[in-house]
From TrEMBL, chain B:
<keyword id="KW-0131">Cell cycle</keyword>
<keyword id="KW-0132">Cell division</keyword>
<dbReference type="InterPro" id="IPR015854">
    <property type="entry name" value="ABC_transpr_LolD-like"/>
</dbReference>
<dbReference type="InterPro" id="IPR017871">
    <property type="entry name" value="ABC_transporter-like_CS"/>
</dbReference>
<comment type="subunit">
    <text>Homodimer. Forms a membrane-associated complex with FtsX.</text>
</comment>
<dbReference type="InterPro" id="IPR027417">
    <property type="entry name" value="P-loop_NTPase"/>
</dbReference>
<dbReference type="GO" id="GO:0051301">
    <property type="term" value="P:cell division"/>
</dbReference>
<dbReference type="GO" id="GO:0005886">
    <property type="term" value="C:plasma membrane"/>
</dbReference>
<dbReference type="InterPro" id="IPR003439">
    <property type="entry name" value="ABC_transporter-like_ATP-bd"/>
</dbReference>
<comment type="function">
    <text>Part of the ABC transporter FtsEX involved in cellular division. Important for assembly or stability of the septal ring.</text>
</comment>
<dbReference type="GO" id="GO:0005524">
    <property type="term" value="F:ATP binding"/>
</dbReference>
<comment type="similarity">
    <text>Belongs to the ABC transporter superfamily.</text>
</comment>
<keyword id="KW-0067">ATP-binding</keyword>
<dbReference type="GO" id="GO:0016887">
    <property type="term" value="F:ATP hydrolysis activity"/>
</dbReference>
<dbReference type="InterPro" id="IPR003593">
    <property type="entry name" value="AAA+_ATPase"/>
</dbReference>
<dbReference type="InterPro" id="IPR005286">
    <property type="entry name" value="Cell_div_FtsE"/>
</dbReference>
<keyword id="KW-0547">Nucleotide-binding</keyword>
Length: 302, 223
């Protein structure tokens, strides 16, 4: 019963039905595509935001002050350890002399220092972190670990900003997920309603097929394929909508980035992500028609 | 063999439509089902197709207990039966060929086989030259013959017809009923519900006469 040619005929049947009413088919596909493009577009936007914030590494900067008695070896070992740690983007060594120079320049207290006769400022490592690489707690734990290393006198860090940033991003992600789930349900209902109308239009055909011994699977199959096909096409269309949106936004983003003296390339969907979008969309279409078929085929006299 | 054993049928919230019905139609036989309007003729045929469930009793068809047949086995069972209706139940947006082909498509017959078998069935009912017509372009008698071709294209074991000549005039009725008799002479079990008293007399076939859901034994004679 499930020979290949039966599936092929069902697919042909589904395609014919869709092509017979091109306007209705297109409207359904566009509606689905928009419903899908919205959450996926927001995911892409969050992804870009994350990318951008990850570049604000000077916002998550940690100073490790070196002990006066630290040996050259201690310092070198520490530097190696810092560079090898997760989330570390850059490690900069600031020697006593350099620290003094900066201090003098910034504070203008040359006279006061001169009176002391000796340079009281410690050497330090400035560690720049990607603020999104780890949870704030994990980053904090890492900083504390560094502070206990031989040669380290103390650590100074302000990770409140990181915690706040991550909390906001987590909130954004959660909100987009909720929206995505609601819109997925919406997509299923749109498809379900479309298929319901198709079923109503083809009531006679369904009844007669059932009368001459068609199985439920046989009757259902063309409708399921209709949902699958429309869902997949809607997925492709949603991908295109997102790509066009990103292309349109890249210009203004370039101008904005130039004002801040940086460059920023907006990220679209990767090939794999696009493929997943199409598959999910096809599955939603299938689920929608499955829902309609499950409800409305049972009213047949079989 | 069709065998009703103490079959009772009532629709939800209604009196019995068929009452303790006992009826036997041996394999290869043809019989007519008569009775006044509302007697339960269509209901009896619907039970045979499992379009309706038996309320009480047992209905056996060629070794299958139709009264307890599981839902998922109904399609396969229906493919062993052919059925013709008074109103043809043709699909008006499909040509004659595709109307008849439907019976074979649902059983997964391949396209090539469908071509030859549909043509053969249409030849049998005398519509070999109307293969690509739409039903609306055919006369009532021709439409009914398309319905018959659809019912016999898969060479069913049993052929059922519910007033197949109800809309046709005398000579057309004769043609159609003679077609059924042909199939019966080729070994198919045939049961035809009809109002048409003149045809009943002309054919001289066994008759099951229903009144208020009960069989009038007097006319059951030779069946
Ligand atoms: N689906 C149904 N629900 C409730 N009652 C029904 C249903 N179908 C038929 N009946 C009732 O069952 C009785 C028998 O109907 P049936 O159609 O079997 O009669 P019939 O002998 O075929 O009549 P006719 O010669 O007019 O076609 C009638 O009283 C009818 O109203
Ligand atoms: Mg009737």
């Amino acid at each position: 019963m499930s020979a290949l040619h039966i599936r092929r005929e069902a697919a042909q049947n589904a395609l014919n039905t869709l092509l017979k009413q091109p306007l209705a088919t297109l409207m359904t596909i566009f509606a689905l595509a928009i419903v899908l493009a919205l959450p996926v577009g927001l995911f892409a936007a969050l992804n870009n935001l994350q990318q951008l914030l990850g570049q604000w590494r000077d916002q998550a900067q940690i100073s490790l002050f070196i002990h006066q008695d630290a040996t050259e070896q201690d310092i070198q070992q520490l530097q190696k350890q810092l560079q090898g740690s997760t989330g570390v983007v850059n490690v900069r060594y600031v020697g006593k002399e350099a620290a003094l120079k900066t201090f003098e320049k910034n504070a203008g207290m040359t006279a006061a220092i001169k009176i002391l006769g000796e340079n009281p400022l410690p050497a330090s490592f400035i560690v720049e972190l990607n603020p999104l690489s780890e949870s704030p707690a994990a980053l904090q734990a890492q900083v504390q670990k560094w502070a206990r290393q031989p040669g380290v006198a103390s650590a100074q860090s302000d990770l409140h900003w990181v915690a706040r940033l991550q909390a906001i991003l987590a909130l954004g992600k959660r909100a987009v997920w909720i929206l995505a789930i609601m819109l997925a349900v919406g997509a299923i209902l749109v498809m379900g309603n479309t298929i319901r109308l198709h079923i109503a239009q083809r009531r006679d055909e369904i009844d007669i097929a059932s009368l001459v011994g068609a199985t439920r699977a046989f009757i259902r199959r063309p409708f399921l394929y209709q949902g699958l096909i429309q869902g997949a096409i809607a997925g492709i269309l949603a991908w295109i909508i997102i790509a066009i949106t990103i292309a349109i936004l890249q210009g203004p983003v370039d101008r904005l980035a130039t004002l801040y003296g940086t460059r920023f390339q907006l990220l679209g969907l990767t090939g794999l992500e696009g493929l997943i979008l199409i598959i999910i969309s096809a599955i939603l279409g299938w689920l929608g028609s499955r829902l309609a078929v499950g409800q409305h085929l049972d009213h047949t006299f079989s | 063999m069709i065998e009703f054993i103490n079959v009772t049928k009532h629709y939800p919230g209604r009196h019995h439509v068929l009452r303790e019905l006992n009826l036997k139609l041996p394999t290869g036989q043809m019989a007519l089902l008569t009775g006044p309007s509302g007697a339960g003729k269509s209901t009896l045929l619907k039970l045979l197709l499992r379009l309706e469930d038996v309320s009480h009793g047992t209905l056996m068809v060629n070794g299958v207990d139709v009264s307890t047949l599981k839902k998922r086995h109904i399609p396969a069972y229906r493919r062993r039966i052919g059925v013709v209706f008074q109103d043809h139940k043709l699909l008006m947006d499909r040509d004659v060929f595709n109307n008849v082909a439907l019976t074979l498509q649902v059983s997964g017959v391949s396209g090539k086989q469908i071509q030859s078998r549909v043509r053969a069935a249409l030849e049998k009912v005398g519509l070999g030259n109307r293969i690509h017509n739409l039903p609306a372009t055919l006369s009532g008698g021709e439409q009914q013959r398309v319905g018959i071709a659809r019912a016999i294209v898969h060479t069913p074991e049993i052929l059922l017809a519910d007033e197949p000549t109800g809309n046709l005039d005398g000579s057309l009725s004769t043609e159609i009923l003679d077609l059924f008799r042909d199939f019966h002479q080729h070994g198919t079990t045939v049961l035809v519900a009809t109002h048409d008293q003149s045809q009943v007399e002309r054919l001289g076939l066994p008759v099951f006469h229903l009144e208020q859901g009960m069989l009038q034994n007097s006319k059951e004679k030779s069946a």
